[in-house]
Structure formats: C-alpha cells, structure tokens
Amino acid sequence: MIAAKDRRIWISASDKLLDGHYMRIDVTYAGYPTSVLLFRYKGQCLAYKNQCVHMPRELDCERDMIFDETGQYLRCSMHGIVYEPRTGESVSTMCNGERLTSVRVIEDEEGIWFNDKRVKI
Length: 121
Prior knowledge:
Elements: E1 9-12, E2 22-29, E3 32-41, E4 44-49, E5 74-75, E6 82-83, E7 105-108, E8 111-114, E9 119-120
Antiparallel strand pairs: 1-8, 2-3, 2-9, 3-4, 5-6, 7-8
C-alpha cells in the first residue's frame, strides 16, 4: 500500500509564494491538460482549476493577475466574475453561488504540495 505522503506532488518551497501572489502550474487534471492557480491568501495556500464558471476561460487569460484591485477577491480577467478566495464561490450576480473547482494542496515544513489524486504532472 502506498502511503499518502508518497502520492504528494511537489510544487514549491513555501517562501516562493508570497501573500497575494500566485503561480500558474500546467498539469493533467482528471486526464485532461489544464492549468491550476496556486495562491496564498491571508497566509493560507489555496488552489483552483484555472477555469471561470461563467465561460470556459482561464481566470488570467487577459491579464497576468487573479486578484481584483482590492486584493480581497479573485477575478476573471475576461468578464470580471468575482470569487471569494477561500471557498471559490462566485459573488457576482451572474454566477452567484457557483464555485471554482478546488484542487487539494498541503503545506508543511518541506513546502507546498499537490495532494489531489486528480492531478498529474
């Protein structure tokens, strides 16, 4: 039997991801090529599949940023759909209540890891 620790996939050293910043990582997710957005928000590492719920577009498709101008919400650069960073839930009227697809990550003394069996690199 493979231990859960052996299924983790290394992403980065923790000090490489500052609060309010993100990394775009190309992966295979559930058998399909896509990208994942890994970011730190108020000290916590979070990750979502890089696809807006409004239309199948990447959140950073038009601008190299995922946060709105306040730094409090995630924002799709194409249509402006806004999401709560901790839950991925849309707070925009058009897609209210829909959620980004969460990707499990963990952070420990060694760094940041994917811990999601749907992700392959």
